[in-house]
Amino acid sequence: MKETWTIEAVVRWATDDFRTRGIESPRLDAELLLAFALNTDRVRLIVDGRRPLEADELARFRDLVKRRRRHEPIAFLRGEREFYGRPFRVDARVLIPRPDTEVLVQVGLERTRHLSMSLRALDLCTGSGCVAITVGRERPTARVIASDISDDALAVARNNALRLGAYNVGWAPGDLFAALRTLPPAARTFDLVTANPPYIPTAEIATLAPDIRSFEPHLALDGGEDGLDLLRRIVDDAPRSLAQGGVLAVEVGAGEAPAVRDLFEARGYTDVKIARDYGGIERVVSGVCVASP
């Protein structure tokens, strides 16, 4: 590298480097990593663009660039990802929260608005806890249970809940609804069940971007042969844990919404709706439970 490296020169160098390696947003990634290395924000990078970097600053940034070259996700390099306006800590133990999952929260909150003061909610496959914690913070009087089969994921979620002040969120380790066995019988009925389960068909895992397939946990990605293995179980079993009139809302993969809607209707849910994400993809299927167990 040159003897003197200013902020703007380093950003240009990293942008060009990332671009030659096929990274989709090279300029943004360069700015995010440099801002993180300097403990500042992207606006300050522009303001201080001609400031030369110190040797230790260059060293920190160079280490981040080396890791990004291997397609390690920006969220893992920075150690956090924003979701619903809150910073969630993330690492290789959990799926990185996506903006599209915010729609799952929005649907769940809107469809249970009449219960906003007394909501009982369950979030399956909670991962980083982004959905459960957001519901808990948006509905401070709610009682929220978050469940995951991965103890490592629950450790991340618990840490996020503590940091973000979601003191009304409890935890139930285990496989989907089987995790509720750890709860008292009176605490096993809910007004809202949300889930962002693995829904990518097994054969498609190898075709995912390297940022995803090489770094995010496959346990949180692989939905079986057609991507619907866990979704079938959730749709079928949820009525046993939902109060009469309770709502089930699940996130699904691109193109899966019609098949999941059929699962809802076959199981007896009513008022089944499909909501689109910010990119216009049918992303969340929800319905009201009136079926008997």
From TrEMBL:
Keywords: Methyltransferase, S-adenosyl-L-methionine, Transferase. S-adenosyl-L-methionine binds at D148, N196. It catalyses: L-glutaminyl-[peptide chain release factor] + S-adenosyl-L-methionine = N(5)-methyl-L-glutaminyl-[peptide chain release factor] + S-adenosyl-L-homocysteine + H(+). CDD domains: AdoMet_MTases. GO terms for molecular function: peptide chain release factor N(5)-glutamine methyltransferase activity. The keyword Transferase applies. Residues 10-79 form the Release factor glutamine methyltransferase N-terminal domain. Its EC number is 2.1.1.297. One of its GO terms (biological process) is methylation. Substrate binds at N196, P197, P198, Y199. Residues 122-205 form the Methyltransferase domain. It comes from the Bacteria. Gene3D superfamilies: DNA helicase RuvA subunit, C-terminal domain, Vaccinia Virus protein VP39. It is an enzyme of class 2 (transferase). HAMAP family: RF_methyltr_PrmC. PANTHER family: HEMK METHYLTRANSFERASE, MTRF1L RELEASE FACTOR GLUTAMINE METHYLTRANSFERASE. Belongs to the protein N5-glutamine methyltransferase family. PrmC subfamily. Methylates the class 1 translation termination release factors RF1/PrfA and RF2/PrfB on the glutamine residue of the universally conserved GGQ motif. This is Release factor glutamine methyltransferase.
